[in-house]
Amino acid sequence: VMDAAKGTGLKVTAWDKKRIEKEKMGGLLGVAQGSAQEPRFIVMEYNGAAKTKKPIAFVGKGLTFDTGGISIKPSAKMEDMKYDMGGGAAVIGAMLAIANLKLKINTIAFIPATENMPGSKATKPGDIHTARNGKTFEINNTDAEGRLILSDALCYASEQKPQVIIDAATFTGAIVVALGNIHTGFFTRNAELKDKIEKAAETTGELVWNM
Fold this sequence. Notes:
Blueprint: H1 2-5, E1 11-15, H2 17-22, H3 26-32, E2 40-47, E3 56-60, E4 62-66, H4 86-100, E5 106-116, E6 128-130, E7 136-138, H5 146-159, E8 164-168, H6 174-179, E9 184-186, H7 191-204, E10 208-210
Parallel strand pairs: 3-5, 3-8, 4-5, 9-10
Antiparallel strand pairs: 1-2, 2-5, 6-7
Helix pairs in contact: 3-5
């Protein structure tokens, strides 16, 4: 990410495990603890407008490989689970495009990145973790890891007081059952934002469906 961002005007930092612990991101740390690879929390910033203008925030799920953890997935098609970082990749791509186009907006992006592995230190069903905002969650299924890493990222994004947060994630196979592989499902209660997304989708041919 840092190599791709060189010369674009993007400021990119990747927090290591020690910094993530300091920021009290228990969801991200809980998912990461079964992997030999340390987690990262990637922060990207672009300023193309006045500093007083509130930024658009992007949050992207960066599960670089998802075995399901202790609640392990079936072996068939598990090789595809490297795509679980698709939301994070989309967000990084969007930030690079915004910077290269020199758009007159301010944007920030947050990508929690880790593997979900069934290592000896992995989260077990029944364990309790504490998110950045102090709320606790009991883990009944370790394959529901996306919401854990995103909870910390969404909490941190909210603290930055952006004008809007756009969260991109390969969150659940159920959306594919509902829509197939043609439309991307999206959720919002903001009618103005819904209209903007649908108009952008029509222009680009990137088909979406409001759930």
